[in-house]
Amino acid sequence: MKKCLMLDVDGVLVHPQNSRSWADDMKQDLGIDPDRLTAEFFNVHWREVILGRKKLESALQACLPGLSATVTAKDFMAYWFERDSAVDAAVLDDLCCLKNRGLSIYLATNQEHQRACYLMDAMGLAAHVDGIVYSAALGVKKPSDDFFAHAETKTGFSANEIVFVDDSKANIDAAFARGWTAFHWTGEERLIDLIV
């Protein structure tokens, strides 16, 4: 019997507020061109940020002055996090049911430190799960086998005790290769129907 559910966050439990990308209205709202943001922030800094080698706020401070004369790193993070924070109520309900049945629940996600804290604290996900395993804290990201190995060590569950749900096929394949039971999330099924 499985003892632990590891659940991806973005695309499974959490979605953008208006069902479009959080960045779709950025030019209108903040005056920041999303293509320039990709070129000057995500392409340059994101890998180091998501692996915990560089702080998000520092990376944003390095590139935002060239993108906007008025938007601070804190302003930008608040905008981003708030717009990328709609919780799927059906998935959350299923998590609560599974937890009540004795399954340990962990979020297993590629996140940097500040959004991981935002997910757990500001969004209140800490009240519904036993913990979060995330890339910046581990120094590796999915689909690296090291991510899954570290997740086992951090939670104390072995591969054969874990069931994993993610919307990325590459992550599912990596978890399966590690020996985890893994399901590719499409949003067309109920979480509880996959697990039980």
From TrEMBL:
Q: Is the Transport keyword given for this protein?
A: no
Does Hydrolase show up as a keyword for this record?
yes
Kindly list the GO molecular function terms attached to this UniProt entry: hydrolase activity
What UniProt keywords apply to this chain's record, in alphabetical order?
Hydrolase
One Pfam family recorded for the sequence: Hydrolase
Database matches in InterPro entries: HAD-like_sf, HAD-SF_hydro_IA, HAD_sf
The protein's name in its UniProt record = Putative hydrolase of the HAD superfamily
Organism of origin: Martelella mediterranea
